[in-house]
Fold this protein.
Amino acid sequence: MNSPSQSTGCVYIVGAGPGDPDLLTLKGWRCLEQAELIVADALVHPALLIWPPGEKQVIVLPCHAEASQRAAVCRQIGEAARAGKTVVRLKGGDPGVFARLHEELEAFRRAGVPCEIVPGVTAAAAAAALTGISLTDAARASAVALVTGHERREKKVPLDYAQLASFPGTLVFYMGIARAGEWSRALLAHGRSAETPVAVVSRATTAGQAVLRSTLGRLVEDLERRPISPPAVVIVGEVAGLIADESRHPLPLAGVRVLVTRPEGQSAAMAQRLSALGAEVWHQPAIEIGQPDDWRPVDDALQRIEQFDWLVFSSPNGVRYFLERLLARGGDLRRLGPTRLAAIGPGTAAELRRYHLAADLLPEEFCAESLASALIAAIPDKSDSRKGDLGPRAAETVETQSAGRPSAAPRVLLVRASRGRDVLAEQLRAAGVEVEQVVAYRSTDVATPEPRNRAALEAGKIDWITVSSSAVARSLIKMFGPLLRRARLVSISPITSKVLIESGFPPAAEAAEYTPTGMVEAIVAAEKRL
Ligand code: SAH
């Protein structure tokens, strides 16, 4: 990527690919990350347009934008770039295939802003790949033509169907469904065989992908019998008849749409796992995570961290915010010294690992109750240092601490969110443990959903919604209300399920292991049964 000059920004015209957001190029992704303004076509997958609030301005053009609307948007892009902004003009498929690229390049040239084009996977390539069709073939197709099926009558260079009919290879019609009758009859009239194989591929690479196999002679009749919804391409030629089995590698979640509701910046791993299994992933954060309103209690606890026997983390966010604060204030991990570390579950333990720390304690069940009893069992009784001993280190810890501090009660620092359950602190206190709690991050509900997510849910297009905590459950119920019943809910744990059930939204599946991976597995198991 060229770096834009100081004063003027740059417009990257980026091909978003045919639908599946994973088919965007890495270069395209880097452009999006840098962009301050993103102007996208309607067909672009929403996952590419969701960014943390306030980070970028996103404009989505309507499906059939008028010339005046397109010109106005080009002017807006030009002005933003001239003001020094990095702009991405995100177009479906490849920017150079039926995408009015020249019109826009000309507008940006007139505006005097530098432009760079980033190619994308065009619909023909995606549709062919997903149906196992090779667009060229040594014996059957020496050329490929990308053809518009929706030719403007006033076109300067009209299509010559006589030439197309004798074209020595594969024809791929874009925008070709509505006028399939016209162009197929024209090809037949100019001598292309009625038996020429045809594959209609609709919504290639999305959960709604559908394929219709036909022949040039039967195409119109078949389309009437089995209507295909746009966008679709029609592949015409011998190659379309070669492999007729598009389900050679069925993935367990192919065709399944999942709305992932984890907070911004924390959904990537789960989204990747879901799309590797064939699902189409949509995003709607239910909760926003941010800095606590007041860092003083954390700073104060960090000052005297050695006074605590245990540091207890009840979420990966707690780990991240607490340790980042320690590092930001110039400290390093040695400050934690002999303090033992407890994590509520494997996700929290994994977050500790990222900081090169191992959890000394992980409860058998990943919930506050289980963590409380594990801690109580693990904290050595001062009168008998072997009781509940976790190994030599526990005994050492007890000796040093009892030497420095006469109080016999073990001390625990609980790192938590600005809201959440108090079970852990209550149970530990009841067992005689001295508990101090600090709020290391703020968690707030996202009030309104993205309009396109709401519309998709209303239309019954979302198959599953992930519910990864009780707080997420409550926020989703507020956000969507009865609409939540339009999709199946997968809950992370019995505690989250309880919140859902009590509010009248029983989950269709519950994770056996209380982690995001557990939720993915629960969806796979439930889909198998359907
Ligand atoms: N620049 C785009 C094409 C835009 S024209 C590209 O390179 O793919 C819009 C047409 O593209 C649609 O009418 C349809 O023919 C085709 N198209 C776009 N996305 C598609 C998809 N996911 N599956 C099948 N056809 C698609």
